[in-house]
Here is the input.
Amino acid sequence: MAAMDLFGRRWALRILWELRAGPLGARALLARCEGLSSSVLYQRLRELTANGIIAPTADGYDLTPLGASLGHALRPLDEWAIAWAQAQDARPEQAH
Here is the structure.
């Protein structure tokens, strides 16, 4: 599977983002990803594991070194999203 296909799948990047600070179990991931179904979670965990991005641990799932390197690529996107959200908060509400 091509990386863009994998990361473009619904919830894949969110799961990786939640794992950035350390391992999490499936229940913790479900709690952090409101709206994520357990079936989709387990499918994404299988795909990410099969592609060497995450690995199962005693504490749940954790990023592999390859997966952790993706976090460096996502930081600028996170910084942009924070700036965008602040700009949205600063905008006057539009009349409907």
Notes: The mean pLDDT is 91. The two ends are 45 Å apart (CA to CA). The helical segments are 3-7, 12-18, 26-32, 38-50, 65-90. Residues 3-90 form a domain with the Arc Repressor Mutant, subunit A fold (CATH 1.10.10.10).
